[in-house]
Design a protein that fits this description.
The chain is α/β, with parallel strands linked by helices. The chain has helices at residues 13-22, 31-39, 47-51, 66-73, 79-87, 103-108, 114-119, 124-134, 148-158, 163-188, 250-263, 292-302, 304-307, 320-326, 341-347, 409-422, 448-461, 481-489, 503-513, and strands at 2-7, 26-29, 45-46, 95-99, 140-142, 208-214, 224-229, 241-244, 273-279, 282-289, 310-314, 331-336, 354-357, 375-380, 383-388, 400-401, 430-434, 437-442, 469-473, 491-496, 516-519. The protein has three domains: 2-188, Rossmann fold (3-Layer(aba) Sandwich); 221-226 and 233-357, AICAR transformylase, duplication domain (Cytidine Deaminase, domain 2), CATH 3.40.140; 396-519, 3-Layer(aba) Sandwich (Cytidine Deaminase, domain 2). Helix content is 36%, strand content 20%. It has a six-stranded mixed beta sheet with strand order 8-13-12-11-9-10. β1 (2-7), α1 (13-22) and β2 form a beta-alpha-beta unit. The longest helix is centred in the first third of the chain and has 26 residues, at 163-188. The relative contact order is 0.06.
Length: 527
């Protein structure tokens, strides 16, 4: 047997090659890999000696040779193939171990030039991988160090690599080539003639990895599957671990993502704990508390009816006392960064409840480091809408007070809280808040006035007073009627983007009512 090894990432390759040699497998290699193996005391044949043709063009041409590709592509079950390679004195290559030039890592570096990128486009590597993967019944192709152990285990046990493993390796190889080519396409098609880069390349090449097939989609007559980004953001939903419960459904996953994205937006410096309850993609209760139990109690109080069968998310550890509270209600999914052993023991009595543990992102300068998507994608008929994700964070200093009444420090905090919640409510969104909890949420209506009325109805049904509350509106007020409705319900401070042609009329109405109004200059439509 012959094994050709040519790797950019040399992690574990010397040990892998040593194990192959101990099994009597001849080693072929190129350049730096060949030197590494030789320095490790292994007998290795340079590819140039194997083909009788020297490397040339600064290493651009070394494995692009019939001796290599004939050895990879020859079908052992076809006599005419075997006769052809024997005629030309070509040996079969039974194992190919190749990982590619680090194109993705190169273009991710600040200051990467087009020349740097071009020189890190691998040609010979992908060509060999494709040849070996095509002829998977006869060649085991390894494209990642994580595959070494399985192949060695089978070789040691059976002197061969199983058909099942070779097919899986082939699929992984074609996936790697696909991802590699897509990364090149993404980079090059984002470049402009003047050398500048566009945020949106001329061709979009999304890559996702399937996590599981789902029982059905939004409705039982629809099929569905669950995928993650090739490189998921730390602290995102797809990185979570399910600790117990039934298999997640399509709707569970969508609502869990809405809950998790909302709850992790609350900085624990504001309050030690935050709880978000989501039903049908909208927060129906959000609150801050001294601990998880207090946050949950306040969030649940907002809308106990809608909370039934909802998704509950915390940004802090769930302890036994909180678990006792939460387990009294019917829920579909519970999410937190950690659970005490006592809390998990309590949930075992609710075997159908899906319990997810997700580590909070540590934070950083980029959206990815903060556990957020950099872009949002929406499918339309035969196309996509791609936009930068709504990752805007409002600061106190961003607010513009436009009324005679100046907001108190407490009102400012309530408005900022309401604004944060409103970002995760479907438009048109109206959110009443006070004291670090939602009091009434109006979501997804065609009219902003209707959303305001619904929020008031929700608060009344829950027995909550809106007197002295703060209200957030995700977009400006087109008329003063919605503002009048909010004040009638009890609001004394309002936060919204502004920007309507009737802003002066709305501000005048706020002054008539004697309430405080601040503008953000930022809209948060969520469709």
């Amino acid at each position: 047997m012959n094994a050709l090894i040519s790797v950019s990432d040399k992690t574990g390759v010397a040990d892998f090659a040593r194990a192959l040699h101990s099994l009597g497998i001849r080693l072929l290699s190129t350049g730096g890999t060949a030197k590494l193996l030789a320095d490790a005391g292994l007998p290795v044949t340079e590819v140039a000696d194997h083909t009788g043709f020297p490397e040339m063009l600064d290493g651009r041409v070394k494995t692009l040779h019939p001796t290599i590709h004939g050895g990879l592509l020859a079908r052992r079950d076809l006599p005419e193939h075997m006769a052809a390679i024997q005629q030309h004195k070509i040996s079969t290559i039974d194992i190919l171990c190749v990982n590619l030039y680090p194109f993705e890592a190169t273009v991710a570096k600040p200051g990467c030039t087009l020349e740097d990128a071009i020189e890190n486009i691998d040609i010979g590597g992908p060509a060999m991988v494709r040849s070996a993967a095509k002829n998977w019944k006869d060649v085991a192709v390894l494209t990642d160090a994580s595959q070494y152990a399985q192949v060695l285990s089978e070789l040691k046990a059976n002197q061969r690599v199983s058909k099942e493993t070779k097919f899986a390796l082939s699929v992984a190889a074609f996936n790697r080539i696909s991802n590699y080519d897509a990364a090149i396409s993404d980079y090059l098609s984002s470049l402009q003639a003047d050398g500048t880069r566009s945020e949106y390349p001329a061709q979009s090449n999304a890559r996702f990895v399937k996590l599981q097939d789902l029982r059905y989609g939004e409705n039982p007559h629809q099929t569905a599957a669950y995928y993650r980004d090739l490189f998921p953001a730390p602290g995102s939903l797809v990185t979570g671990k399910q600790l117990q419960g039934k298999e997640l459904s399509y709707n569970n996953i969508a609502d869990a993502d809405a809950a998790w994205e909302c709850v992790k937006s609350f900085n624990k410096n504001v309050a030690p704990a935050a709880c978000v309850i989501v039903k049908h993609a909208n927060p129906c209760g959000v609150a801050l508390g001294a601990n998880a139990g207090e946050a949950y109690a306040k969030a649940f109080k907002t809308d106990p009816t809608s909370a039934f069968g909802g998704i509950i998310a915390f940004n802090t550890e769930v302890d036994a006392a909180t678990a006792e509270q939460v387990s009294k209600q019917f829920m579909e999914v519970l999410i937190a960064p950690a659970f005490t052993p006592e809390a998990l023991a309590i949930f075992t009595a609710k075997k159908n409840v899906r319990v997810l543990q997700i580590a909070l992102p540590k934070g950083g300068a980029t959206a990815w480091e903060q556990g957020r998507n950099a872009q949002d994608v929406k499918r339309i008929g035969s196309g996509l809408l791609i936009q930068s994700a709504d990752n805007h964070e409002l600061k106190l200093s961003d607010l513009k007070v436009v009324t005679k009444a100046q907001p108190t420090p407490q009102q400012l905090q309530d408005m900022l809280f309401a604004w944060t919640v409103g970002k995760y409510v479907k438009s048109n969104a109206i959110v009443f808040c006070a004291g670090g909890m939602t009091l009434g949420v109006g979501a997804g209506q065609m009219s902003r006035l209707d959303s305001a009325r619904i929020a008031g109805i929700k608060a009344e049904a829950a027995g909550l007073s809106l007197k002295g509350s703060a209200v957030a509106s995700d977009a400006f007020f087109p008329f003063r009627d919605t503002l009048d409705e909010l004040v009638k319900a009890g609001a004394t401070s309002v936060i919204h983007p502004g920007g309507s042609m009737r802003d002066e009329e709305v501000i005048g109405a706020a002054n008539e009512h004697g309430i405080a109004m601040v503008l953000t200059g930022v809209r948060h439509f969520r469709h």
